[in-house]
Design goal:
By secondary structure, the protein is of the alpha+beta class. Helices cover about 50% and strands about 15% of the residues. It folds into 3 domains: about 150 residues, Glutamine synthetase, N-terminal domain (Ubiquitin-like (UB roll), Roll), CATH 3.10.20.70; about 400 residues, Glutamine synthetase/guanido kinase, catalytic domain (Creatine Kinase, Chain A, domain 2, 2-Layer Sandwich), CATH 3.30.590; about 130 residues, Up-down Bundle (Four Helix Bundle (Hemerythrin (Met), subunit A)), CATH 1.20.120.1560. The protein is built from 25 helices and 19 strands. The strands form 5 sheets. Strands 9, 10, 11, 12, 13, 14 and 19 form a 7-stranded antiparallel beta sheet that branches. The radius of gyration is 28 Å and the shape is globular. The two termini are about 20 Å apart. The relative contact order is 0.11.
Length: about 725
C-alpha cells in the first residue's frame, strides 16, 4: 500500500498532473457575467412586458405571482433554456443534510406518436412544484418512511440558471423544501421567513427617521476559505476521503512559522484552477472579486461582492460545488473541512452581514459623524443588544463537529460570543451612554510616511480584529465564527431572527414612551442607553485568543461553550423557542427537529472518525510498524553478536520505545471501538453526543498522538500515508 504514496509523489515530481480541458475565456468579465442565468435581462427578451413587470414586482416587492404569470414564466424559461441547449431541469433545494439536493427531469415529453407529437415543455405546475421523497432526508422526526411525500417549491427571488458539464446542460430552479403538512424540511424556508420578518421589523424602525423607506433587505458577503491537495495524494489518504480531515499526521518541519504563504505568489497550478472555477462562477452570476493565499500552506480564499442574503447563500453553495468539480479537472481536491490539518490554521467562512433600505442606505454605515448619526446608532446598538441577549443561540448556530476543532484555536475566534467595535466606536458608545447624541469633533487621521511620491493615507474608523467572533468592520458586522463547510443559512436565519426580535422590542418600547409624551429622539435615546447598559459586557476589543479573555469573560458572566455537544441545547431553550415561534420563522416542532438532526449529524460524524481512526491505525500503521520493529530487533541482535554493547543498548532503547507505541496503538484502537459502541447506550441523543464528545474524542486524540510518534520513528519507506510535508507543499 505504501507504493500508492510513492507512485503519487513520483508522478507529481515529473509534473504529470492533469490540466483542465476547459479553455479560459479571453473575453472581459462583463461579457460573460451571468450568461448562464435567467436574469432580469433575459426575462425581458423571453417574457411579455406584462409578465416581466409582474415577476419584477414579485422579486422586488413580494407581490403574489398568479397562475397566468407562472405559466408564462415557465414557457419563457423553457424557451431560454432550450435555446441554450439545455435538455433537463431540476428543483435545487437545501435539505437538512447541510448540502444541496437535485432530481433531474427531461424537458422532452413523448406522446403516443413520439415521432410526430413529442416536444420539449415545462408547465407551470412543473416549475412551481415537484415531489422528492421527504422520508429519505433527515427530518428530526417530522417525516418517516410511511410519510414520504414532500414538495420542492420554486423560489422566484433567486434566479434560475443552467450548469454546463461534460454530461450535458441542466436547468436549476432554486426552491424551498417542505413536507406534505407544510413543515419546513430545509434550511432555506426559515431563512426566507427570517429575512421577511427582519424586513418588517427594520422598516418600522427606519420610519422613525425616514418615512419613505419601503422595505429593508439583509445583505451578505461571504469569504470562503479552503485547502487544495493533489488528488493522487488525497486518494492515498482514506481519512481525507471518508472524513474530510487528516486523523493522523505528524507536523511538517516547515509549517506556517515563517508566515510566507499568506498573500504570497499564487502557485501557477493553483492560479489556473482559480481562473477556471471563477470563470464558471461568473457565467452563473456569482460576483467573485477576490482570490489570495491564506495563512496556512496549501490554504486559499475567494470572496464575492455583497448580495441579497438568500441569493448570496445560494451562490455560496453553488460555488462550493463548482470548486469541487473544477478541482478534479486539474488533478486537485478541495478540502472545506474546518480543520483538515492539525497544527496549522483551519478554515472559516466569514459572513459579512448588514441591512440596506430600498433607497440604497446601508443601515450599518456610520457616515462621517457616527456620534451624531442616531439613525446608524439605533441599528448598531440593537444588533449589539441582540448578540448579548441571544449569544448562546448564535454560538449554537455555528456548532459542528468540524468547527469544534477550529474555534478557540490559534487562528480562529473563541467560542465566547462577543462584539468587537473598535476603539473609536467604543468611545462613541461610551459618550452616547453618558451624554446622548451630541456633536463630536471629527477629523480624518492621516499617516505621513515621509516617502516622496507616496500618497497620504487615511485611517479607517475601525480596525479589524480577527480574534473576535463578531467584529464591526466599518459598515457591517463580520460573523467570523462560521465554519468553512457550513451552509450559511442556519447562522443567518438565527442572526436575522434575533435582530428582528430585538428591533420589534425596541419599536414597542419607543412607541410606549412616545405615547407617554416623550419626544421621538429622546425616547429613542433613552431606550438605546438602557440597551447599552445591559449589553456593554459583551463588547470586547482586546485579544480573543488569550487565556486572559477566558478569565475575564467568565467574570462578566459570558458563556464559553467549547463543544457542539454543549452548545446545541441553546436551540431548544425556552427563550429560543419563544423567539422563533413568535416571529413565525419556525414552529416549536421544527425547532426541535433541527436540534435532533444536528445532534445526529454530530454523533455520526464523530463515530465515523472514530471507526476510521481505529481502522487506519490497525490496517495501515500497525503492519508497517511491526515489520520495522522486527527489523530493529534483528539489528539489535546483530550488534550484540559482534560485541557492540553500547550501540546495542541505544538500539534497545529504540526498540523499547517502538514496542511501547505499538502496544499503546493496539490498546487505544480497541478502546476507541469499545467506547464508540458504548456511547450509543445513552438515554437520549444529547447524552450520546456528550459521550462522543467527552469520552470518544479524547481517546481519538490519544491514538493520534501515538500514531504521530510512530510516523517520526518509522523508516519513511514503511509509512503508507502521505505526510504533511507532501500534502501541504506539493503542488
Amino acid at each position: 500500500m505504501s507504493q500508492i504514496r510513492f507512485t503519487a509523489l513520483s508522478e507529481i515530481a515529473k509534473g504529470n498532473t492533469p490540466e483542465s480541458k476547459n479553455g479560459l475565456s479571453k473575453k472581459r468579465i462583463s461579457e460573460i457575467f451571468g450568461q448562464n442565468v435567467f436574469s432580469l435581462i433575459e426575462m425581458k427578451d423571453y417574457l411579455s412586458e406584462g409578465t416581466y413587470l409582474r415577476i419584477l414586482a414579485a422579486i422586488k416587492h413580494n407581490a403574489k405571482i398568479d397562475l397566468e404569470t407562472t405559466e408564462n414564466v415557465a414557457k419563457g424559461m423553457k424557451k431560454w433554456a432550450t435555446d441554450n441547449g439545455v435538455t433537463h431541469f431540476t428543483h435545487w433545494f437545501q435539505p437538512l443534510t447541510g448540502t444541496t439536493a437535485e432530481k433531474h427531469d427531461a424537458f422532452y415529453k413523448p406522446s403516443l406518436d413520439v415521432m410526430v407529437n413529442g416536444m420539449e415543455n415545462l408547465t407551470a405546475a412543473e416549475l412551481v412544484q415537484r415531489e422528492p421523497d421527504a422520508s429519505s432526508f433527515p427530518s428530526g422526526g417530522l417525516r418517516n418512511t410511511a410519510q414520504a411525500r414532500g414538495y420542492s417549491v420554486w423560489d422566484p427571488s433567486s434566479p434560475a440558471f443552467f450548469l454546463d458539464t461534460e454530461n450535458g446542460k441542466t436547468l436549476y430552479i432554486p426552491s424551498i423544501f417542505i413536507s406534505y403538512n407544510g413543515e419546513s424540511l430545509d434550511n432555506k424556508t426559515p431563512l426566507l421567513k427570517s429575512a421577511e420578518i427582519l424586513n418588517q421589523a427594520a422598516t418600522k424602525v427606519c420610519r422613525y427617521f425616514d418615512e419613505g423607506v419601503g422595505h429593508v433587505i439583509a445583505t451578505l458577503g461571504w469569504e470562503q476559505e479552503y485547502f487544495l491537495v493533489d488528488e493522487a495524494l488525497y486518494n492515498a489518504r482514506p481519512d481525507l476521503i471518508l472524513t474530510g480531515r487528516t486523523l493522523f499526521g505528524a507536523p511538517s518541519p516547515k509549517g506556517q512559522q515563517l508566515e510566507d504563504h499568506y498573500f504570497g505568489t499564487i502557485p501557477e497550478r493553483v492560479q489556473k484552477y482559480m481562473q477556471d472555477f471563477e470563470q464558471e462562477s461568473l457565467k452563473l452570476g456569482i460576483p467573485i472579486l477576490t482570490r489570495h493565499n491564506e495563512v496556512a500552506p496549501g490554504q486559499y480564499e475567494c470572496a464575492p461582492m455583497f448580495e441579497q442574503i438568500n441569493v448570496a447563500i445560494d451562490h455560496n453553495l453553488l460555488i462550493m460545488d463548482i470548486m469541487q468539480r473544477t478541482a478534479r479537472k486539474h488533478g486537485l481536491r478541495v478540502l472545506f473541512h474546518e480543520k483538515p490539518f492539525a497544527g496549522v490554521n483551519g478554515s472559516g467562512k466569514h459572513n459579512n452581514w448588514s441591512m440596506a433600505t430600498d433607497k440604497g442606505k446601508n443601515l450599518l454605515s456610520p457616515g462621517s459623524t457616527p456620534s451624531e448619526n442616531l439613525y446608524f446608532l439605533t441599528f448598531f446598538i440593537n444588533v449589539v443588544k441582540a448578540v448579548h441577549t441571544h449569544a448562546d443561540l448564535l454560538r449554537a448556530s455555528i456548532a459542528t463537529a468540524g468547527n469544534d476543532h477550529r474555534l478557540g484555536a490559534n487562528e480562529a475566534p473563541p467560542a465566547i460570543i462577543s462584539v468587537f467595535t473598535g476603539s473609536l466606536m467604543e468611545e462613541v458608545l461610551t459618550e452616547f451612554l453618558q451624554k446622548g447624541p451630541h456633536v463630536r469633533a471629527q477629523h480624518k487621521e492621516v499617516i505621513d510616511l515621509h516617502i516622496p511620491k507616496i500618497p497620504e493615507i487615511t485611517i479607517d474608523n475601525t480596525d479589524r480584529n480577527r480574534t473576535s467572533p463578531f467584529p464591526f468592520t466599518g459598515n457591517k458586522f463580520e460573523f467570523r465564527a462560521v465554519g468553512s463547510s457550513a451552509n450559511c443559512s442556519t447562522a443567518m436565519t438565527v442572526l436575522n431572527s434575533m435582530v428582528a426580535s430585538q428591533l420589534m422590542h425596541f419599536h414597542q418600547e419607543v412607541d410606549a414612551l412616545i405615547e407617554k409624551g416623550e419626544g421621538k429622539e429622546k425616547a429613542i435615546t433613552m431606550v438605546l442607553q438602557q440597551y447599552l447598559k445591559e449589553s456593554f459586557i459583551s463588547i470586547f476589543n482586546g485579544n480573543g485568543y488569550g487565556l486572559e479573555w477566558e478569565k475575564e469573560a467568565a467574570k462578566r458572566g459570558l458563556s464559553n461553550k467549547k463543544t457542539t455537544a454543549e452548545a446545541l441545547s441553546a436551540f431548544v431553550s425556552p427563550s429560543s423557542i419563544k423567539m422563533f415561534t413568535e416571529l413565525g420563522v419556525l414552529t416549536e416542532k421544527e425547532v426541535r427537529a433541527r436540534y435532533e438532526v444536528t445532534l445526529e449529524q454530530y454523533i455520526k460524524t464523530v463515530e465515523i472518525e472514530a471507526i476510521v481512526s481505529a481502522d487506519l491505525a490497525q490496517t495501515y500503521v500497525l503492519p508497517g510498524a511491526r515489520r520495522y520493529l522486527f527489523e530493529q530487533i534483528q539489528i539489535l541482535k546483530g550488534l550484540k553478536d559482534i560485541g557492540l554493547d553500547k550501540a546495542a543498548e541505544n538500539s534497545r532503547t529504540d526498540v523499547e520505545e517502538l514496542f511501547s507505541c505499538i502496544d499503546d496503538l493496539l490498546g487505544l484502537s480497541k478502546k476507541l471501538t469499545r467506547l464508540s459502541t458504548e456511547a450509543h447506550h445513552g438515554k437520549d441523543l444529547a447524552a450520546i453526543a456528550s459521550d462522543f464528545s467527552t469520552k470518544v474524542r479524547p481517546v481519538m486524540n490519544q491514538l493520534r498522538e501515538t500514531v504521530d510518534k510512530l510516523e517520526l520513528k518509522l523508516d519513511d519507506a514503511a509509512w503508507k500515508l502521505p505526510k504533511y510535508r507532501e500534502l501541504l507543499f506539493l503542488k
